[in-house]
Amino acid sequence: MRSPRPVAVTGLGCICAAGTNLAACLDTLYRGERAPQPPARFHSDHPVRYPVFAAAAELPGGERLGRTARLAIVAAREAVADAGWSPAALAGRRVGVIVGTTVGSAMNNEDFYADYLRGGEPPLAQIERFLGSNPATAVARDLGLTGPCQTVVNACSSGTDAVGIGAAWIRAGECDLVLAGGADELCRITYNGFISLMITDDAPVRPFDRRRKGLNLGEGAGFLLLEADGLRADRPPRAFVAGYGSACDAHHLTAPHPEGAGLKRALAEALDQCGAAAADLAFVNAHGTGTPDNDRIESRTLAVTLPGVPFLSTKGYTGHTLGASGAIEAAFTVAALERGEVPANAGFGEADPQCPATPVTANTPVRGEFALSQSLAFGGNNAVVVFRKGGAR
Amino acid sequence: MSRLAIQGLGVVGGFGCGVDALRQALAGAPPTPQPAPAGAGGPLPVLLAADDALEDFVPRRALRRVDHFSRLALLGASLALRDADRLETDRSRLGVVIATGWGAMATTFAFLQSFIQGGDVCSSPTHFSSSLHNAAAANISILLQVTGPSLTVSQFEMSFPSALLTARRWLAEERVDAVLVGGVDEYCPELGYCWRRFFGVADGPLQPLAFDRQSALPGEGAAFVLLERGDRSGRYGYLTAIGQGNLAGSPPALPQRLLLGADGQKECGAGYPRLLPTGARVAAYAPAWGSLPVGQAFDLAAAALAAGDNRLYPAAPAPAGGLELLGGESFGDEPVGCLKLGRCGDYGLLTVARR
Q: Pairing relation of β-strands B336-341 and B257-260?
C-alpha cells in the first residue's frame, strides 16, 4: 500500500449530550460529568427505562429538516467557523461533504407507518421531510457547497470512515476542502432495536468495566474541516489525518470477530499509512461501547497490538451516538492531542479479567506525536483513523 | 484521473438476471411490468426482480435470515465475480462498495411493525439488525468471505456516483486489488403507496426521453461492476471519469454521446435537455429496469456492456424532433457518458471508454 501524505485538519465542531459546542463538551469531559436520563422526546413502554444521552432539545432548522440533519448543520457550521472560513469564502471552492449516519438515512417514520398499518392514507409531509434531510446534502445546502456529497451508512463506524475517506478525497485532488463528520439522533427505533438485541445497560454505561451490561444510546454530531496543502499558509492546522484503515470481519452481522481480525487489520493499515509505531502513540480513543463483546474484543486487541498505550472510551460522556460516534470521537481525539491530556474513562470502576488492557481512570497527561481513534460496527466493519499533532493555535 | 478497468458485470432487475438478459432488454425487448401491492389504493405496475438464481452461488440454508434486499445485492455481486472469472480467487484484497437510495426498506418497515403492533417489548432483533443500510454489504462480506474494506453509501439518486468516488480512491491508494461496486434498491408496498400519492399511476409505458411527461414506474434490482486499476486490460472497457456535485457550482463538461439517467420522472427529466451539448446523441434505457434511485448503476452496466460488445444498443423511442438518438453503431473510440440528474441540481457523470 502507498503511504499517502497527511491531510490538514483546520476546524472542529461538536454537539452532543456533553455540550452544544466542542469547548463545552471538553469542559464536561475533563470535569468528569455525565447525566444520562430516560428518554424524554419519545414514549417507551419497556418495563425498564434505559438511560440515554440526549443533546440540546432546541436546534436550528425547524420542522423543515429531520433532527439528524439539524445536528449535522450545528457541528458543521462550528467546524467551518473554527477554521476561520466564512460560508461566502467557501462558495467558490471545491468543497465536499461526507457524513456518517444510521438513523439519518432510514425511512422509518413511525407515525406515518402506524397510520399506514391501520389502513389509512397517511399524509406525505413526513416522507417529504425525510427526502429533504439527507445529512450530507443538508449540510451542503446549508453552507451553499456544490462539491461531491457522500452519506456513509456503515453503521457505527460511519463517522470514522467519513474522516478517512474525506482525507482521501483531499489527497486525490477531488476537493480543496472536505467537511467530514457524522450525525445521528435518538429515536424510538434504535432504542427498541438495541434493547431487543439485549445489549443496552439499564445503568449509566460502563465501558470496559466488569459489570458492564451494554450501551446507552446517545445523539449528536461531530465535524472536521479538512484542507488541501497550501490553501492558507497563515493558518496552522490543528492536526493532520495521518492514517486510515478499514477492514471487514466477514464473520457476523452483529458480533465482532472473536479474535478481532478486522480490527487488527484496520489498525495495521492505519499505522502503516503513517509510519507510526505503538511508542509514537499518545493514546487511543477506543470504541468502548460498554457491550460485553465489543469491549472484550477491543481490550484484547489493544493489549496485543498496542501494549502500554493509554486508552479510553468517551462514550461514558456521550452515550453511543452510532453513525456520529466516530466523528465526535475524532474531534475529541484531536482536541486531547492538542491539550496533551485525556479525560478519565467515565463508568470504569472494576477491572474485567476478560479484558487484559484497562482504560485510564483519571484525567491523564499524555505524550506523543500521534493519537488514534477506532470504531467497530454492525456488519463487521472496523475503521481506524490516526491523527498527528498540528501547529500551535 | 486514473481510469479503472471494468472486469465483470452482475445485474438483476425487471429484465431478468445476468448479462445476456440485460443485452436482450437493451436490444429491444424491455420487460413488462407486473402488478404489485401498493397499500390501500390497489396494485401498481412495477418492474420486480427475482432473486432465486442466488441459490446457484450460496446454499439455501445460509440464506434463511437474508432478506430480499441483501439477496439482490448478493446475487449481483456473485454474478459480477462469476462474469469476471473471479469466483474462486482469494478475497482478502477485495473491497465492497454498495450504493443504495432506500436501503432495506421492507425490513425497516417489518421492524417498525414488530413494535407498533406488538408493543416495544416485541421489537424484532432480527429485523433490526437486517434493516441497517450496510446489512447487504455485510452479508456479501460474510457469505462470500470478503475481508477487505466495506462501504455503504446512501445519497438518494447520487448514491452510485458518490460510491464510485471512494472505490476509485481505494484502488488508487492500493488498499485493494479490486472492488465490487454495486447499486441496489428494492420495491415494497409502502414505497408503492408513497409513489402513488406522489406521482399517481402512469397511464402508459415508461418514456424516458419524453422529458415533460411523468411516465416513471418503480423498479428494483442490483447492478454490480468489478473494478480493477486501469493498468489492467478492461474486459468491458474503462471507467475514465467520475463526477458528482451540484450544477450551481461548475457544470460538468459532457461528452457528445450520453446515456441519460432519465427514467420518466418529470421533475428531474426537465433538466436534461437544458444541459445537452449541441449535436449530442443520447439514449436512455430505464424501460429495462424502471425507476429506482440507483438507476445509474444500471446505466454504467449498459455502457460497459456496449463497450465490451463494441455496439451501442438502440435508444428508447423519443418524441418527434429535438433529440438525436444513439443506437445501432459501434461503440468505437470515443467515450460515452452516463449522466444522472437528481433533485435541486445534483448531478452524477460517469464516462466509459473502450480504450
A: parallel
Tell me how far apart the alpha carbons of residues B79 and B85 are, in angstroms, rounded to a whole number.
10
Q: Is the pLDDT of residue B347 over 80?
A: yes
Task: Decide: helix, strand or coil at residue A103.
Answer: helix
Q: Does B333 touch chain A (CB under 8 A)?
A: no
Amino acid B326 reads L
Tell me the Cα Rg of chain A: 20
d(CA A291, CA A263): 16
**Distance, CA of A34 to chain centre:** 18
Of B41, B162, B248, the CB nearest to A146: B248
Per-residue pLDDT reduced to its tens digit, B49-90: 999 999 999 999 999 999 999 999 999 999 999 999 999 888
Cell for B259?
446515456
Nearest to A160 by CA among A251, A247, A70: A247
* C-alpha A47, offset from chain centre: 30
* Number of Cβ within a 10 Å radius of residue A47: 7
B266 vs B255: CA distance, rounded Å: 23
Domain definitions of chain A by residue range: 7-389
Whether chain B has a CB inside 8 Å of the CB on A41: the answer is: no
Q: Which residues of A53-68 are buried (b: 16+ CB within 10 A; e: fewer)?
A: bbbeeebebeeebbbb
Quick one: cell of A364?
A: 491523564
Could you tell me which CATH number the domain at A7-389 has?
3.40.47.10
Residues 6+ apart with CB under 8 A from A91: A144, A145
The answer, yes or no, to whether ipTM is higher than 0.95 is yes
Calculate the alpha carbon distances from B89 to A217, B85, B144 in Å: 41, 9, 11
Instruction: Choose among A108, A117, A293, A320: nearest CA to A213.
Output: A293
Residue B130 with chain A: CB contacts under 8 Å: 253
**Cβ–Cβ contact B198 with A under 8 A:** yes
Q: Bridge-partner residues for B9, per DSSP?
A: B225
Compute the half-sphere exposure of residue B274: CA atoms within 13 Å on the CB side of its CA: 9
H/E element, B216: none
Residues A319-328 pLDDT 10s:
999 999 999 9
In chain A, pLDDT over 70 holds for what percent of residues? Answer: 99
Helix (H) or strand (E) holding B12: strand B4-13
Q: Is the CB of residue B79 less than 8 Å from the CB of residue B9? A: yes
Q: Is B137 exposed, middle or buried (0-12, 13-18, 19+ CB in 10 A)?
A: buried
CA distance A143 to A229: 22
What sections of A83-131 are H helices per DSSP? 87-90, 110-117, 125-131
Q: Yes or no: say if A247 and A214 are a contact pair by the CB < 8 Å rule.
A: no
* Cell numbers that stand for B216 in this block: 416513471
- Is A377 at the interface with chain B, CB within 8 A? yes
pLDDT of A77 strictly over 80? yes
